[in-house]
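Aim 2, interim progress: modelling of the adenosine-5'-diphosphate-glucose-bound target.
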Amino acid sequence: MSRLIVVSNRVATNTSKATAGGLAVALQAALKESGGMWVGWNGNFEEAAQPRPEISSAGGVTYATFDLSRDDYEDYYNGFANRTLWPLFHYRTDLTAYDRRFFEGYQRVNGFFAQAVASLLKPDDLIWAHDYHLISLGEELRRRACKQAMGYFLHIPFPATEVMVTMPNHLALVRALFAYDIVGFQTESDLRNFADYVVFEAGGEITARGMIHAFGRTIRAEVFPIGLDTENFLHLAKSAEAKRYRTRINKSVGDRDLIIGVDRLDYTKGLRERLEAVERLLEDYPDNRGRVVMLQIAPASRTDVPEYIEMRHELEGVTGRINGRFAEFDWNPIRYLNRLYSRRALAGLYRASRIGLVTPFRDGMNLVAKEYIAAQDPRDPGVLVLSRFAGAARQMQAALIVNPYDTDEVVEALQRGLHMPREERRERYKTLMANLRRDDVYAWRDSFVAALEDAREDVDLDLAS
Ligand code: ADQ
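Predicted structure of the complex, ligand included:
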C-alpha cells in the first residue's frame, strides 16, 4: 500500500471519534493504515513563515504543520479563498471580491504549501489535496518536479461557466486543476459544469471513460459524493450524552413539535429565508402557533469576513422580529443559538426533532442532512425537508425536496412533514438509511484512493516508457 499524503488548509488533529467529524475520522484511519501524513496550516502566525513543517503525531497519525504570515492569511484565506472562491462557487457574484492581490496571495501560499509538501515526499506517495483553498497546489508541486500521482477533491460546488467566467483568473485556475491526475466532485452537476467549462472555454475535449483532455494533459474527472461515518453516528445517537440532551429538550419543548436547523453561520445556507418560512408557517397555518418550535443552531464562522458579521446582525434582527410578533408568555417560536455542540449532543437534538430543515441555496453536499437522518429513531423517525440545491438531494430523494427560493413550497413541506403518518415516515427513513449505509464516508474515501492508485500505475507506466 502506498503512503497517502493528505493536504488541506487546516489539519484535524483531534482523533477522538466523538468530537472529530466523519471526514477527519475516515482520513485519519487511511493515514494510519498507510503510514501516511496530513499536511496543512497549524492555525498560528509567524512574522515571516518558513515552509519547514513541524512533525508531530497523535492517535497513530503523523501531522506536518506550519505557520502562515498574517499577510498570507489575509490574501489567501480571508481574501481569495473566502471572499472570492467561496461566494463565486456558491453563485453569489454579488458578494464576490475581484481583487488581484488576493489571487497573487493565493498562488503564493499554494506555492508555500507545495514547498512544505515537496520536502516530505517519497517517490511512491499518493497525494490527495482537499478543497477550494488548494486548487493550485498540484501545479505548484509539478513546478517543483514532483511526479507522484495527485488527486484533488472539491468539497463545494463547481459553478456554471457563465458564473465562473466572471472571475478574472478563471482560466489559470482551471488550468491548475489539470496538474492533478484525478479531480473529484460532489455531484454530477458539478462535474457537468466543469466539463462544460473545459470544452467551451478551454477548447478541451472529453475522451473515453470520464477522461478529459485540455492544456496538454489528460486527467480523470469523476463524481465522489462524500458520505457520513454512518455507523458511528448511529452509535453516537444512542449514547448517554445524546439521551441526556434529548430528555432535556423534550422537557423544555413539552408536547410541541420541534423543527431543527444546524448550520455554520453562512450566507449560503439560506438561514434568513428559512426563519421567514417558519414565520409564514405560523401565518398561513395558525394552528401551529404555540405548537411548533424552531431550534436553529448556527455557530459563527469566518468572523474576519465582513459579510459574515453583517449576516449575524441580520439574523438576530429577523429572529427578534418573528419572536416579537408571535411569542406568548410561555412560548417562543424560534430559539436561535450561536454555539457549538458535541456530535453526541447534536445527535440527541436531531433525534428529538420532528423535522430536520436543511435549506441551503447552494451546498456541495451538506452533511447535516445525512446526520439528521442517521440520528432518527427507526420506529418513529422524523422528516427531512431538504433543498434541491444541496448536493445531498441527489442521493436523498426520499426526503421532502424543496426549492428554498419558493417559500410557499417550503411551508407546504413543513406542514406535510408535521402531519406525515408514521408509516410513510418509516418508509422514507428506510430508503434514506439504506443509502447512507452504502455510500458512507469510508466508501467515499476508498473509491477516491482506489482511483489515485490507478493513476499511480499510469504514472509508473509513463515513467517507464
Ligand atoms: P460545511 O459547509 O461546513 O462543509 P456541512 O457538510 O453541513 O457543511 O458540514 C457541517 C458540519 O459541521 C456537520 O458535521 C455539522 O454537524 C457540524 N456542525 C454544524 N453546526 C454545528 C454546531 N453548532 N456544533 C457542532 N457541530 C456543528 C463543506 C461543504 C459541504 C460539504 C462538506 C463536506 O460546504 O457542502 O458537505 O464540506 O464535504
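Residues 441-464 form the longest helix (24 residues). The two ends are 23 Å apart (CA to CA).
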